[in-house]
Design goal:
Helix content is 43%, strand content 12%. The protein has 304 residues and is an alpha/beta fold. It has one domain: Rossmann fold, CATH 3.40.50.1110. The chain has a 5-stranded parallel beta sheet, with helices on both faces. A two-stranded antiparallel sheet has the order 4-5. A hairpin with a 7-residue loop joins strand 4 and strand 5. Helix 5 crosses helix 12.
């Protein structure tokens, strides 16, 4: 009889393969540890304060060619607290497109001009532009931590109202034949006041001084063809400006009435851009001049 040999396959893994598996496992562990370390380092800044997600997002390595774009000024996004910690006093200008400097180079925005005017008194002064075009006081609440409090400011200048009081469509038909739709203020007055109160409370809790700046005058007739609508818009801006003033008075804060200052200068065409809304270079220079005087009434430098 022919003998058939049966060979049982060995289940033992060769040493070389075992070594390879150990190496791969070690590499995976190292990668996981590195990812954890990286995520922790990204979630904190030099000041040790946590930034709110989505605040101060970097707008790129190069500044935009246009002076009009969404978000913070490119120059502001480059600041880390560790870069400016030694600067004192630190002022943050929180606002909309007027603060941003719409249609205007960064070097002509009022925060930049304000810093230049204050250097004589405060050689190490830092003024940070935290203006974003199109924003309201309600929007400011969402980015207060990352765009303002992160910098541990000695004082904050707040300027909102243009986008809050602007008339917008309700989407409903109007009885008035001269209008296509009914209009309302973008942010109703009660919400405007409530959001302003919250801003003041949160900033005050951090020990920062606060100045409230009203809105510049607007040429409403350039915004609306209908004269009644233009008049309604003008009345809305007056009302919201007066409300900002009353909020400041209720809290014992300095109120900067740039509306009256612009009107007192005479020809608004020399201070307002052709769009009828945004201050031009002369208007922004006037704002920085008024603010430099107002800040002189404060003693913003404090112990760190």
């Amino acid at each position: 009889m022919r003998r058939i040999s049966v060979y049982k396959r060995s289940t033992r893994v060769p040493p070389a393969i075992m070594d390879l598996k150990r190496c791969l496992s070690l590499i995976m562990i190292i990668m996981i540890l590195l990812m954890i370390a990286f995520s922790v380092s990204c979630s904190s800044k030099g000041s040790g304060e946590e930034l709110k997600e989505g605040s101060r997002t970097n707008s790129g390595e190069k500044p935009p060619e246009s002076n009009n774009y969404q978000g913070l000024r490119f120059e502001t996004t480059r600041f880390e607290f560790s870069d400016i910690e030694g600067k004192s006093p630190r002022f943050v200008c929180l606002g909309d497109s007027v603060t941003f400097g719409w249609n205007i180079p960064y070097e002509k925005s009022y925060p930049f001009l304000l810093e230049e005017k204050l250097i004589g008194k405060y050689p190490e002064v830092m003024v940070i532009n935290s203006g974003i075009g199109g924003e309201t006081v309600v929007d400011a609440l969402d980015r207060l931590d990352g765009d303002v409090l992160y910098f541990k400011p000695h004082a904050v200048i707040i300027n909102f109202g243009l986008n809050d009081a602007i008339l917008v469509s309700t989407g409903e038909s109007s009885i008035d034949e001269d209008k296509d739709v009914d209009l309302r203020n973008n942010i109703d007055l009660e919400n405007f006041k409530e959001a302003y109160e919250q801003l003041i409370e949160r900033i005050s809790e951090k020990g920062s001084e606060i100045l409230i700046m009203g809105t510049n005058p607007v040429m409403a007739e350039l915004l609306w063809e209908n004269k009644d609508t233009a008049q309604k818009q003008e009345e809305s801006y007056k009302l919201y400006n007066q409300t900002s003033k009353e909020i400041a008075e209720d809290h014992g804060l300095i109120f900067i009435d740039i509306r009256e200052s612009f009107i007192a200068r005479g020809d608004l065409n020399t201070l307002i851009q052709p769009d009828g809304i945004h201050p031009g270079e002369a208007g922004l220079d006037l704002i920085s001049e008024i603010l430099s005087i107002a800040l002189g009434l404060l003693d913003p430098v404090r112990e760190e």
